[in-house]
Amino acid sequence: MVRVPENERWEIVELYFKGRSQRKIAEATGRTLKTVNRIVRAFKSCRRMKDAPRKPRSQVTTEQEDVWIVAAAAVKPGLSAQQIKNTLDLRASVTTVKRRLREAGLKSRIAAQKPLLRAQNKEKRLQFSRQHAQRSTEEWKQQLKMATTTYIHSRSALSTKH
């Protein structure tokens, strides 16, 4: 529906109170009879020139569901919005769940992926620590210096263009 500018609404009301018929006003302004009638009725009943105030769209989730969404994220921070939606059996979209979490001040984060240590990894680490337990601090510093130098040289070789 095309909005009628306020100045044109005033013109329609003015013509009406000058005694013109609504049909003549519609012809003169290029608006439909229904539009002219609606504007005149709104002015006569409420002295209103602007569109009537409308109710905001109702929320998909209730306040209780909003609390549950935030609680689920607080209890298990690793849950995704999709998992929260499925766990709580919400009819709201995943986007709505994300919006409710943002409104509650919770930001989305991706948990850091830690490498899982298998039994053989733990065993190798234990062997390494037993073999090198007698090393002095100076030996470790020397080892670290060699490893750093090797790393720097290998990185600079990679960045050189051929």
UniProtKB/TrEMBL annotation:
Cellular component terms (Gene Ontology)? nucleus
Q: Which GO terms describe its molecular function?
A: DNA binding
Q: Which residue numbers delimit the Transposase Tc1-like domain?
A: 69-133
Q: Which domain of life is it from?
A: Eukaryota
GO BP, one example? DNA integration
SUPFAM superfamilies tied to this protein:
Homeodomain-like (SSF46689)
Pfam families in the record:
HTH_23 (PF13384), HTH_Tnp_Tc3_2 (PF01498)
Chief localization: nucleus
Give the location in the cell.
Answer: Nucleus
* Name of the protein in question: Transposase Tc1-like domain-containing protein
- UniProt source species: Rhipicephalus sanguineus (Brown dog tick)
